[in-house]
Amino acid sequence: MGAEPAPHPGLNVVALERELNALWTNLGEEDPHSGVTRTCVLNLIIYADADSIDHHLDETLIEVTEKHAGRVILLTEDHAAESPLLDAWVTSRCTLPTASAKQVCCEQVTIKAATSSIRETPSAIASLLLSDLPVYLWRRGNPDLHSPLFRRLASLSNRVLVDSRLSNNPSGSVSAIAGYFTDGGRVTPLSDLNWTRTVTWRAVLAGFYDVPDYRSALDAVNRVEIKYLAPEAGGLAPRALYLAAWLASRLGWRIDAAAHVDGDSCEIDVWAQGRPLRLTLQAITGVDRPGHLEHITLVSAAGASFSVRKTPDGQRLVAQATLGADRRAERVSGYDQWTESALLDHELEALGRERVFEQTAKLADRILDLLAPASSSG
Amino acid sequence: MSPESLDNPLREGLRAERTASPCTVVIFGASGDLTKRKLVPALYRLSQERLVPAEFAIVGISRTPLSHDDFRERMRSAVSTFSESKHLDEEVWRNFAQGIYYLSGDIANPELYNNLSQLLSEIDAERGTSGNRVFYLSTAPSQYSEAIKQLGAADLARSVTPDSFTRIIIEKPFGYDLASAKQLNEEVAAVFDEDQVYRIDHYLGKETVQNLLVFRFANGIFEPIWNRQYIDHIQITNAEAIGVEGRGAYYESSGVTRDMLQNHVFQVLSLVAMEPPVSLSANAVRDEKIKAMQAVRPIHHDQVDAFAVRGQYGPGSSGGHAVPGYREEPGVNPDSATETYAMLKLNFDNWRWAGVPFYLRSGKRLPKRLTEIAIQFKQAPHLLFSKLVEQHFEPNVLVVRVQPDEGITLRIGAKIPGQTTRIRWVNMDFRYGASFGVSSPEAYERLLLDCILGDSTLYARRDMTERGWEIVMPVLDAWRNSRPDFPNYEAGAWGPAAADEFLEREGREWRRP
Q: What's the pTM value of the predicted model, to 2 decimals?
């Protein structure tokens, strides 16, 4: 049996701070006439796996820091490293907001750590955070909400962002998120980027409820069908699950009735303000966009229908309300392409608990519970 | 069920908490520049951002005979030229354009309004616009009265149903002087209730102007020093680098005082001078603004020279190019006495501002385009370091830049590093562009949406428009009755020497922005 490698001496935070200060002096000297503006509105900790670091992340960070200037701390975990690797360095990111303006520069601290050394990093990160500014933690990878490292990093943060799309078990991670909220004790507010990806759909659906003329028909809806492209990892797509659970939680549906699974379709009977309603989640096949929402239809007993569908090229949304043969409204609008930077841009504007998401996640977990026996028996 | 009171359970948690009701926007003056440059591009963007519902329509009205399709095509071209994104998605546009209609006719002809009434009913039935209407007067100001009278006569000013709304947006200028503003207000009031009337001042739609409220009332550190105890004086500068740009004929009947000072600059002034409102409701904010403006000490006819300076640019240089003087501009009288620069000193007779002069200046062909508010604080009570400063000891200045490079700068004294104590004046900068990195929505987008939502906070109330005229009328009357020695400043300079001398006499100087 070989001797265990000696523990890494740790990160030299003082040296990092010195490097950060030197960075600004150097930037000022490089451009003494127009100068640079250092701007910080937040701290962003990114916790990613070393093998997932690619140019996409770099592009994302360029776009994100243009809109949310601040200090980025990129923590990468190298699972393959054999030695107790722990290294850190400082870089700057500068952009020119307008042709005539000064350069706006942000700073990035990159920490690369072997799995065996990574537990040392939260204490270093804590001292590198800019004071008084909000701290966001973005877990870019399979979210393991129970890992001690994740919990430590979350405790340093004001808001945590995870992405169930990157999970090995997407619907399972929805349950884990629901569990995070019901764990008890004080937890850092958390959101799932897959929930953010449903924003456009939720906004369009909410638009139907803004029209007084539609209300009586919407209050008589007895069938809701959500179609989605099957996720690569199989199972229910979190986005479809979230959308169904969101409707249920906002509209006060009671989900304790029977559920059954028939191939790619899950049907759940719910009670909506005392009337029965059939909720269907239907996976459809498609080569592109796994896990994406494609179509949602709300149909009332009197024949009115409200639908939102994505066009085949995925570029637009078509919202349609049909109250009868002579009354139909349709709107075609661009579909927000939720790139990684667009998702972050949206989430970095929020701070604090997102009550609606917490309720939705819990109800989504309830739907999964109901479907589990149905799935195993069916 | 009124749209504004409709509770929508799905809205909670969505960022777009405000959503407009179905409605039809009727634009009078649809062949004009404003419609194609601002209004339709703004409405298109609101639709794209889903801030107005699918049940939405636009009716353009002007004298030019056009079919619906001709008008749609013109608007398509306008949106692709003037919209912020420039890119026009044809499929999205086709869908939006289905809700665009056109009516041609003479604004004074009752038949136009009968046709409009019929068209609006058809649109309600076809597109579900629920009888909600917003009329937008974007015609020549001389046609406002006629359009308002005709709308009343055709019974188009009243709500179609108890739950629907009818509103009217009136573009500036709101009157030519106090008498005409009062008359127009009377004519409007004879047809519309005040809560239906939205007098647009696009300055109030600018993000930084709105931020004045946030800056003052969301930050506990500013309000305690926002008064006569700490502030020496305030300068508000509204400068344009351009000349009259082909609008010489219009400008001849206007001048900078009518065109900019009594509306835009006074709106900014009222936000700086007002007391904290009890809420952010439209009337709570507007009540405080008018209270502040009512405290402005009147300028007497025989004291105008002690409170105002006027100017007119002569030939000079702007942006590195030789430019003609105002009197050489097309459409301008070669002996014109119209002022292209005006400076006012205003005093407020209230507890907060007693003894604090507000210096306002606005002009054309100044060195650069900018609008800013500079709050100059009093000197520290004991000048401990005065012997160390070779030149004069500069006061702290807080500058709120409204445009361009929106932001806030605080000038403070700091020790220059070294063995001796030397002081250098440095700026602490907050820049919108750097901190938020997102472009602000167009002022017209915000204002149109507010009107459809029924929020008139950023619109001028009747009393405010009249108060603006009351303050400037003695100055305008005095100037009308005396012959100025124009031109008195070179294009590209910061106004006439008399304006600099005015402040020098008071022991102060204009900032060089």
A: 0.85
